[in-house]
Amino acid sequence: MTALPRGAWPVAGAAADPLGGTIADYQAGRRRGAWSAAEVTKHALARCRAEGARWHAIDEFSPTALADAQAADARLRTGKLRGPLDGVPVFAKAIYDMNGLPTTGSNAEWARLFPDVVTRDALEVARLRAAGAVVLGKTAADDFAYRGNGTSSRTGQVLNPHDRSGTRTPGGSSAGSAVAVADGMAFAALGTDDGGSNRIPAQFTGVVGMKPTFGLVPRTGVIPTWPYLDTHGPLARHVADAALLLAAIAGADASDPLALTGAFDAAPLGALRDDALAGMTLGLVDAHVPRDRMTAEAVAAWDRAVSDLRAAGATVESFAPPVTLWTCRDAFAAAATERGDAAPNPKSPAPTANALLRYFQGRTRSAADAREAVRLGYPAYRSFYDALPATFEECEPMLHVPMSEDPAGRSFARSRAEVVAGLATSLRDAGVAAMVYPTMPFNAVRAVDDWPDIRTTLGYGNWLGLPEVSVPAGYGSDGMPALNLSVVGLPGDDARVLALAHGYERQSRRFTPPPRAG
Questions:
Q1: If I label 174, which of 188, 315, 332, 461 is the partner at 20 to 30 A Cα–Cα?
Q2: C-alpha distances in angstroms, 212 versus 5, 217, 355?
Q3: Residue 27 falls inside a structural domain
Q4: Is the four-CA dihedral 493, 463, 159, 122 of positive or negative sign?
Q5: Would residue 8 count as lying in a domain?
Q6: What local confidence, expressed as pLDDT, does residue 15 receive?
Q7: Is residue 379 part of a domain?
């Protein structure tokens, strides 16, 4: 029998609402017979149909969720659990394929063009099912995961459950995933991140969002975005829960040509220590903390977060990395020029075109069917990914160019390796275990308004391929999540940054669920 983790963090309301605690709390309740996976799944689906509908957070429901939960209960009775996620309700994002459901991409036109259910699971969904998770369905997102506002032409504007006025954005593009976990519809959810799409809604809804090391999570079976930036990872209310989800979905697979190929040890993700910050040195990147542009309340929240890090035993000192959000792109270009290489471009159109063809090849019966599906869906997709050629006919020659062979993309990857090597040397010489800075220097705006004109670090993490965990750092006087702390490491440091983020979370305990309606 696979051991379930023991509950370690009493959460107010968890006894009455198993969805209000951690995965460990939930599994402890199952062990002692306080509730079953089937009972909790029914409750989760009811909450989704009420709260989820209110916030426009859900794209599709799985027709097998209740049966999957019943099967998990049967495994518990016979002592054949598959691991700590067995029987745990989770969600995936609308751009993920899921057997038995159409893949809408949260786009009204694609929902019309491709109404048939798909007959495969995206690799991450398949891995979650193999771990015993109960996948409730798919969450709403920005169309094709393109923007950061939670605006879907299919399901409408996703709303922020902390804002009873119904006007403020939850962020995006993984909007529904963040809202679902914030509001206790599921314990965790899959999201994607090309330039902040997990971390933005994590901050705006006050949950944990992770952008893992680039390539750690293969992306097969998911509508593609920018292959040299796109990174998939978890959203959850607690860091330990995010770590369990990452442990299930990470690891090499040859179906994604840009995924990492080395072995991945998931064991440390299931054993995060509360005292992980004790004796650690963290580098506070002052260039990423625009104090003069932040509100007084945001500055206060940030200073309190730093104090919490120190109270947990960390040394926090100023750190000036060799490349910052202000110099990152110039550093990539300079490295390419020094090599005599093509100009680096992570949004080169050819890799996205090839990824789109590969996506449809995985869900259709023949090469001709895949080509026809790309042709059919191209205008709607290209209306967002407008770096692509204007017409399918212009794009067609790009479809068969392997994404790993695109000159601009390969140059980008080479520059990334060189720039990150310099960053690694700098961190090692300074004795710094990880960098810290605000995920974003402002909180959620109204969905119809532009963001403040303050540059964020979001793209910095994607360009360098760094693992980053965004953790709630408190609430403002308006009752909205005010700020998240980002813990950022080098590629491959995923377990370390999760452990450090967990140590901060245990010290600060800043997560607060949104108020319940009625």
A1: 332
A2: 23, 8, 20
A3: yes
A4: negative
A5: no
A6: 55
A7: no
Number of structural domains (the chain) is 1
Active site residues: 93, 173, 197
Which tens digit of pLDDT belongs to each residue from 430-472? 999 999 999 999 999 999 999 999 999 999 999 999 999 999 9
Q: Which two tokens stand for residue 209?
A: 């969002």
Q: Give the CATH number for residue 157.
A: 3.90.1300.10
Contact between 486 and 449 (Cβ < 8 Å): no
Q: Is 503 exposed, middle or buried (0-12, 13-18, 19+ CB in 10 A)?
A: buried
The answer to whether position 305 is within a domain reads no
Tokens, residue 233: 């990872």
> Which of 62, 34, 33 lies closest to 186 in space, CA to CA?
62
CB atoms within 10 A of CB 410: 18
Q: Look at residue 8 in the predicted model and tell me its pLDDT.
A: 35
pLDDT tops 60 at residue 67:
yes
pTM, 2 dp: 0.96
Q: Are 393 and 315 in contact (CB under 8 A)?
A: no
Q: Are 325 and 459 in contact (CB under 8 A)?
A: yes
Mean pLDDT of 393-414: 98
Give CA 463 to chain center in angstroms.
Answer: 16
